[in-house]
Amino acid sequence: MTSQIRAGQLMEKLSGQVGGAELYESRSQETPVRFRAGALESVKSVETIGRALRVIHEGRVGFSTTTDLADDKTLVQNALQSAQFGGPAPFDFPGRQPGPSVKCFDPEVEEMETASMISLGEEVIAKLRAYDPELQVDLSVSRAVEEITLLNTSGLDVEDRRTYYNLGIEVTRTRGDDIQILWDSASSHAVGEIDAPAMVERLLERLRWAERTARVETKAMPVVFTRLATLCLLMPLGQGLNGRFVYEGASPLREKLDQQVIDPRFTLVDDGRLDFASLSSPYDDEGTPTARKPLIEDGVVRQFLYDLKTAAQAGASPTGNGFKAQGAGERSYHLPPTIASTTRLVLPGDQSLEEMLRGLDEAILVQGVIGLGQGNVLAGEFSNNVSMGFLVRKGEVVGRVKNTMIAGNVYELLKDRLIGLSDRGDWVFGVLNTPAIAVDGVGVVSQG
Amino acid sequence: MRDRILKALEGSSAEYTEIRVEREWRSRVVYQGRDLENLEASSDLGGIVRCLVGGGWGISVFNSLDELGARVEDARRIAELVSSKVSEKVELAPVEPVQDEVRVSLEKDPRSVSLQEKQALLQAYNDLILGHSDKVVSTRTRYTDSFKEVTFASSQGTFIVEERPDVTLLLGAMAREGDANVQLAAESLGWAAGFEAAEGQEEQAGTAAQRAVDLLSAKPVTGGVYTAVLDHILAGVFIHEAFGHLCEADFISKNPSLQEVLKPGRKFGVDELNVVEEGYLPGLRGNFKYDDEGTPRVKTYLIRDGILEGFMHSRETAARMGAVPKGNARAISYRHEPIVRMRNTIIDQGTVPFDEMIKDIAHGIYACDAFGGQTELEQFTFSAGYAYEIVDGKVGEMLRDVVLTGNIFETLKKIDRIGDDLKIIGGSGGCGKGGQYPLAVTFGSPHIRIQNLTIGGRAA
C-alpha cells in the first residue's frame, strides 16, 4: 500500500531530525447496523484513516494527528512545534520485542454480510417481543476490520489486523409513568464469542423479575453487585491501581504495594492477551508487549498499571497498558497514549449466586446503576442510583426496587464487609469478567 | 470544493441526499500536577453522506474526499438495501432551502495563536492552583480549541458553509489531607469564541483551588430526604439530564406508550415553571446558526407555565409527529449522522430572591455545581460539586459527597420556588448520547427549590 511505504519513509526522514519518533496509523472499515423501535433504521459504511505522530526532541514530547495522509508536512511541523514546548520525555521509544501470540482476528467478522447482521437483529427483536409485544427494542450490531501500523525510530515495526464485532440491545418497557430501560452489550474480536441468545435470556429474566415492584427501607444492608453494577466497586479500585494516580500521590493504594488491603478472597487480574477479548492485542499502542498480571492477589496489592512515561517517572517497568484511550472505553488514533486497563478479571469464589442469596435474610441484588464515576471515586467512594435492582429475601426475588440509592466506600466494604464472591464469572461489555460480589453494610436510601 | 459537492449531489439518484464535509484545526494543552501531559496541534478532514431511498437511510463516512461521487453511490446502495427492510418509511419534514455562508470574526483566532502562548496561559493557571495552598497536591487543567469549517449541502437546494469556533478551559484542583482525604474541585468553562475568551480567568483558578481545600474539612452528607436548593449550575444539569433528554423526540416518536406519558398539555410543574430550549445565543458554547440538517436553530418551549408544550426534533421525528423542526439535529463530527440533541436548555427566570427561598427551611441542603449526571428516562441522578447545610433559614456548614436522585415526573412537581437570578453556563465538557460525546451545549437556571429530594450517602 502506498501510504504504508510513506509511513516508513516518514520515519526515515524524521530519524535524522529528532531524538525519536513514533508513528501510529489506523485504517478501519466498519459497518454499524441500527434498529430503532424494533425496526431497521440505518446502515452505515465507515471508512476512516488516521495518523498520529509522537516525537521526542531535546528531551521533550511533541504530538500531532491528522486524517489527511497527503499532508505529511503539517503533521511534522505541528509535532515539532509541540515538542519545542512540550512536556519532558523521561523515556525512549522501545525497540522490537517479541510479543505474545494473541488471537485478534476472525475471518468470519471480515466476511460478514450486512444482511446477516440485519437477520441477527431481527431474531433478537422477535424473541424479546414474543415475551411482550409492547417492548420497545433498540439494537445495534456492527463489524469492523482495523489495520494498525506502529513504527518508531528505535526499530519497532508492528503491523496488526484486528476484527471487532459488537452487539448492543436496549429494551424499554413503559407502563403508565413507570418506565424501565434494560440494556446489555457485548464486544469481541470474534463472532463466536458473542452469545446473543444468552443476552436475550438475561434480559428476559430481568423483565420477569421486574414485573413486581418492592419497597426497601432506608438503612445499611447487604448488596449483591452483579455485572454492570460491579463497576461501583471496580471503578474506584481501577483508579487506585492506575500508576499515574499512584505516582501523583492521589491513590489510596500508593504505599500499599505487597500489603493486604482487602479481603483475601478477592483477586483482580488485568489480562492484555486473552484470546479474542475485545481489548486484547499483542502489543499496546506504544509497542510494549501486553501481559496477564494479577493487580490484587488474595487481597494483596501486587501491581500498578503503567505506560512508558509513568513507568519511567515511577522507576517501574511498563506493563503493556499504554493505550490511545480516554474516558469510558473510547479508543482512537487521535488520542495520546495513556494508562488504560485491558480485560479485567475478578476471580470467582466457591458459592453459587443462588446459595449466596439464600443465605441472606434480606439483600438488594443490583444489576445496573446510573451515575457511575460520580462523586469522589479516587477516594473509593461510590454513590449511585439503582437502575436495575431487586429486593431478595432468603433467595426469593420479591420485586424490583425503585427510587433507591446505594453508597459506600469500596476500600472499607471490600476489606471488612465482603460476604463472598459467586462461583461463576459473567462478561460485562466484553471488557470485564466478574462473579457476583456480595458486601454488607452498604448505605441504602430509598423513597419507595 | 463547492463544485465537487454539487456535482456529487447531482449524480445521486436517491430521493434525498446530503453531504457534510468538515475541516478542523484543533489544539490541546493538558496538565496533571506539574506534568505537561499533552501539548498538541492537530487537523482533521472528513465527510459523511446520507441518502434516503424508499424510506430507508444509507450512510457513508470517509476521510478521503477524492471520490465523492462513489461515496454518494455507496450510501445510496446501502439505503436501497435498508429500504427493503424498513417497516415504517422515513419522511422528512420540510425546511426552507438555505444558501448561506457564516464566517466568524474572532478577536484572537486560535489558528494564529502559537502553541507556546496556549501552553503558557494554561501553565500560569496551573501554577496559580498549585501555589494556592500546601494542601493542593495536584491539578487537572486543560485548554482546548477547535475551529471547524462545516460545509452542508442537500439535494433540496441547501448549501451552507459555517465556521464553528470552540474554546474550553478546565481548571481543576486536587487537595489532600492525611492519607485518605482527597478532594477535587473544578471550574469548567467554554465559549464559541477565540483564544481571548480563555484569557483572564485567574480568579476562576483561585476559586477551584480554594474549594478543593475547603472540601477537605467539609462533612460527608448523611443520606436522606431533604428540602434542597440547587444553584444555577446544578439546576441546569438537572433540567438537561432529567428533563431535556426525555424531550428528545427520537425517544418518543416511535413509542406510543411513552407518548401517552408525555402528552403535550399535561401539567408537569408549578405555573411559574418554564423550560426553554434556546436555539442560537451567539458567543455561547456550541452556538451556531444552523444544525447539521441545515435547519436554522430557533427557540422552542418544552414547558410553558408548568405545562408540557413540545419536543426537540430532527426532520425525521418532526415529520412523524407532525411538528416543525427547529434545529435540534446535531452531530459531534463528520463521523456521525445528526441525531436529536439539545442546544441551550434553560429553566427560565422566576421571581423569588435567594434569601426568600431559604428563609423557611428548617433543615435542608444547598447543593452547588455538578460533577456529572446521568438519566435513564424516568430515573435520574446527579452529583453536586459541593454543598452546604441549610439550618433555620441560613446557609451553614459545607458538605460533600452529595448525590441527588429521583423520578423526573415526581421531582418536577416538587419544584416549588424559582429564583430571579438566571445564569447560563457553557462548560468545558459536553453532552453524550448514542455514542456521540462530547457535544458542546449550554444549560442554565436560576436557583430553584425542590421539596423531598432523595440524597444518597452513608445511612444515618
Question: What is the gist of this entry?
Answer:
With 448 residues, chain A is an alpha+beta fold.
Q: Count the beta strands of chain B.
A: 25
Task: Name the strands of the widest sheet of chain A in spatial order.
Answer: 3-2-1-4-5-6
Helix content of chain A: 10-25%
The percentage helix of chain B is 10-25%
Q: What count of domains describes the coordinates of chain B? A: 2
Which band does the percent of strand residues of chain B land in? 35-45%
Structural class of chain A: alpha+beta
Find the count of extended strands of chain A (DSSP E, 2+ residues).
24
User: Count of DSSP helices of chain A?
Assistant: 10
Low-pLDDT sequence parts of chain B: none
CA gyration radius of chain B, whole angstroms? 24 Å
Largest sheet of chain A: 6 strands, antiparallel
Task: Give a structural overview.
The complex is a heterodimer of chains A (448) and B (460). With 448 residues, chain A is an alpha+beta fold. Chain A folds into 2 domains: 2-207, 2-Layer Sandwich (PmbA/TldD fold), CATH 3.30.2290.10; 212-448, no CATH class. Chain A contains 10 helices and 24 strands. Chain A has a 6-stranded antiparallel β-sheet with strand order 3-2-1-4-5-6. In chain A, α4 (114-131) runs parallel beside α5 (196-209). Chain A is globular and about 70 Å long. The termini of chain A are far apart. Chain B is an alpha+beta fold and 460 residues long. Chain B is built from 10 helices and 25 strands. In chain B, strands 1, 2, 3, 4, 5, 6 and 7 form a 7-stranded mixed β-sheet that branches. In chain B, β22 and β23 form a beta hairpin. The chains are: A alpha+beta (448), B alpha+beta (460). The interface between A and B is large, with 87 and 87 residues. β2 (39-57) of chain A pairs parallel with β3 (56-62) of chain B.
